[in-house]
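Morning F.,

Quick status update on the modeling queue. The single chain you submitted on Monday has been processed. Sequence for confirmation:
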Amino acid sequence: MTADPHPGWGYRPAIDGLRTVAVTLVVLFHAGVAGVANGFVGVDLFFVLSGYLVTNVMLAEYRGSGTVRLRRFYARRVRRLLPAAVLLVVVVAAATLLVLPRLTRVSLVADARAALLYVANWHFLGDATDYFAADVHGSPFLHFWSLAIEEQFYVVYPLALLGLLWLGRRLGRPTLVVASGLASLLAVSLLLQVVIARGDALAAYYGTHTRLYQMLAGALLAVTWGAHGGPAVASLRTRLAAPLLRQVSLAGLAAVACLGVLVGVASDIGSLSPSVRGIVACGASVVVIASLEVAPASGLARLLGRPTMTYLGRISYGTYLWHWPVIVLLRAALDVGPWTMAALALVGGTAMAALSFAVLETPVRRSPRLDPWPRVVVAAGLATSLVVAVAVVGPVLRNDTRPALRVREVPVLAGGGDSAAALAADVPAALDLAATEPPEYDYAACSPENVAACVLADHGDVTVLLVGDSNAMVLVPALQELAAEHGFRFAATTQVGCPWQIGLVWVVDDTARRDRCIAARDGWYDAIVPALQPDVVLTVHVPRDPGSRADGSTFAPQDPADDRPLEEVVADATAATVDRLTADGAQVVLFEPMAYAADDPTACLSGAVTVGECAFQANTEPFPTELLYRALAAERADVGVVDMDHIACPYLPLCVPMIDGELVFRNQFHLSNQWLMDHRAALWALIEATGALDAT
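Structure tokens below.
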């Protein structure tokens, strides 16, 4: 993506054309174009190309001078990468003032700093970002994760290569030693990718150690096949790349076939995991590059080497930099389809890349005045990134200015009255978010080994147990107060991102979270519930029916081999878990999932003038889970159902995120703690109406 191509360094014009293919796949994926659901493999191709090209650059210098001048190498990296990256971060930070609300902008400060310091992959891994989701509403700096991996590679790899070259020269077998060393490192990284991907797909995707194998594959190809691999490699190329191979285009056919494989794994065909797709894409990329090297006259090489393709490849670094912010910021202002968004991203990203390449990147990279001062260049580049990270992005992104471009209209509300007044109310200049946050609750303290920690209030003989996910967690403070007011013993056992039904999980790429859910839930039903012997069990979860969430996450069977219809799986899991909870005489109260917005309404308010700009329509028809819960409550005397929609949205079907100056929602999927505390009497009335407490 970012290595400098240069004629004579194992470079063919077709290599630039490959970079055009790679960046196009990524843009189509980010735009959400159907059929390119796995276009993120374009990054895999970029990684292989980077390892290949940068190794050829260093080998060419080594063969010519007997060493690699590290200061000049790092200076070239700084001159090549930092100017465009710093420019983008500053421009995008300023552009967010036009379309993003204040709270959203503030959340981007750490993202921008991580991007400038090239640690974005570890930063976003810590935030557990779902990069594989087709929806791209998120950070305009997310794509820096791949650039961070490359730059971390560029810092360490030259040292490793020089060490191997020194050892190879001492042993008299430089090519063999370097190739063996790189192959060993590749094998370790590939093994880490395979092992870690089984337990944590995001860690395998974002981790530098799990991605090195792709850059090392390109590096190994350069050593064993590139133009500067030494006499042994030259002899090998002469023997294998015979005139017949060149003229009959066997290599060209191999390149076409493997490029087809690459495009195939970028599509939504098949059910390969991102890890497996990356491994396949890496192997196909290696074959394509090797084939193009020995068949520069093949039809594919000529196509990829056309002037337009090579030019777009030369500026692909800039296109990659700019296309993602274009998509994210346009999504905030426009409602367009995937193909339109892809066109806008390709045109806009390419235009900005071309401008940056001509006006900033090329002059800095080629300036002869900078050549004698590699140390100064490196120091100045790092200092610039640090200064911008510390002194620029914070003040810009934390600016209290409302976005200049507001595109949402106040919803039309039938009936008028108090709801109309709520919609027309002005949003305060400052939002008190502290009131929306619940007090600290250590849900991990409750465990089979420490059941006593599950009890959060003890004011009576009747035990009420809360079970569920983060939506259950936000109810804890209000239920603690209700326990004191109405005299009952209150306990809670919860887990973030975990359905309470045995045998169900949620569709997420965070396999570690999935495993934690299953382990925690086993502890609930095997140890905690029997020990507490609850009289009433309240079950709570966020919406997970198909179509209930903008991110597309849904229930899924815990057993991947269970191919029954999803509604049947959910119904059986719910009934079986209810049977288990009621086996010792407990009453179960099923909380229906509440109505939530497609976007964060509180963040929306931070960029709005009137409350109505951020109101949203709740679903008018019940989802399958709601119908299931109601049917169970109608059939069984030991099951009740609670619908909290009127607490969250008093003006149904319209949900108003601020009423009488008070925030209703904490974020997209959770109610405000203050709102729940102020409406706990209404919550208690709903629980009492189920009759569950009468049976205790």
